[in-house]
Design goal:
Blueprint (H helix, E strand, L loop, with lengths): L6 H14 L11 H41 L5 H10 L6 H10 L1 H13 L1
Length: 118
Amino acid sequence: MSRVKTGIVRRKAHKKILKMNKGFRGTNRRLIKRAIEANLHAGQYAFVGRKLRKRDMRKLWIVRITAALTQVGDGLKYSRFINGLKKANIALDRKILAKFAAENMAAFKAVVEKVAKA
């Protein structure tokens, strides 16, 4: 049986990693060992970043709702507003409420009035 060298297979794997590292700086895009390490770290940062994005978006929605409540809510605080939503059986999440607050103030005002009654 003849000997088979890994030249083609290894080159294909290396090219795949270098292609993924396009846009990286310095040797992280050129040298294979550094490229593999950089790729692993980039994957870890991306994983953490996806979790942080959810946290940041929730913070943003809360800030928008609070700002709209100061305009419309007659002194109604955010925590009491959320509690009132649950008591009034209004099943709107923070994302939808923030969208109402930014784009459709009349709908948000209607929700605030129902919460104030409950």
